[in-house]
Amino acid sequence: MMKKRRNIQNESGYTIVELLIAIPLASIVLVVMMSALFSYYINVYAEAARSNLRTSGQALLINLQDELLFTIAYGEHLDVNLSDPYAPSGGWSYNSSPQTLIINEVALDSTRRDDDRHIVRRKVVSNCASASEASNPVALNNIIYFIEDNPGSDYDSLVKRTVTPNYNLCGIDSVTKLPCTPTSSTCKANAKTTTCPAANVNTGVCKGADSTLTDKVKGFSIKYFSENNIETSYPSDADKLEISLTLGHQIYGREVTVDVKHTIRKIN
Predict the structure, then answer these.
(1) Residue among 63, 148, 146, 45 at smallest CA distance from 102
(2) What does pTM read for this prediction?
(3) Cβ(75)–Cβ(104) below 8 Å
(4) Non-local CB neighbours of 186 within 8 Å, separated by 6+ positions
(5) What is the bridge-based pairing of β-strands 254-265 and 240-251?
């Protein structure tokens, strides 16, 4: 009987005091472990987001390279022969805050990489076929990169707008290869069309929506350089520019940001 009683005592469970001590300790250990695991997960997720932001930012700036390389000039304002009814109040200006990039490019009747492309000219003299090129000067498009506010978001959008001429153009006939007008199935004109906010597409001269390149912009700035890498305040004096872009993303309340830069020297 004594032996059986001792076995029963040895097999008894934890006392209330032991449980009151053990449970809080186990809870603390569990909380610490979960907190460490969650922090590790956040760090891994944040690093992946940072890598994605850097990759997308670099790709975005590299995609601008074609237009930046072949621009004939960077502009302070919209070209005097162009108009944009959807421009901000006061018109387009390079020294807005944040800055705006205005590119003057030669109008072409096809893509720049098309071997059969031709320059499109402004029709000043009535006869495109017989008038000299000096009489009908090169037509210009403006490509505008600007920052647009996103209501309710901590980040802005980088948007691209194209503004093309409203004036009459001299194209090239794809059959005769001679200057021609007006635009027809064989008389090719400007390959680009004017864009505007999506709500205004197909109103007036606007035929397409502006392109949103990214909606995660935290900062956007441009530096202009003239010959011998001398920084200049006037885009029209520059033959090289440096674009700096800061992109951001929220990861469980923590902000991740990445800075990317790209330098381009125009070749025209």
Answers:
(1) 146
(2) 0.83
(3) yes
(4) 173, 174, 175, 176, 180
(5) antiparallel
Closest by CA position to 220, among listed 259, 163, 264? 259
Paired sense of beta strands 254-265 and 231-232, if any: unpaired
**Ramachandran angles phi, psi of 143, nearest 5°:** -105, 125
Distance CA 208, CA 169 (A): 20
Q: What are 205-262's pLDDT values in tens digits?
A: 898 999 999 999 999 999 999 988 999 999 999 999 999 999 999 887 889 999 999 9
Residue holding tokens 């956040």?
42
CA distance 180 to 133: 13
How far is Cα 80 from Cα 62, in angstroms, rounded to an integer?
Answer: 29
Task: Find out whether 224 and 234 touch, Cβ atoms under 8 Å.
Answer: yes
pLDDT tens-digit map of 145-193: 999 999 989 999 999 999 999 999 999 998 998 999 888 889 998 999 9
For 37-43, the CB contacts below 8 A with 24+ separation are 42/251, 42/252, 42/254
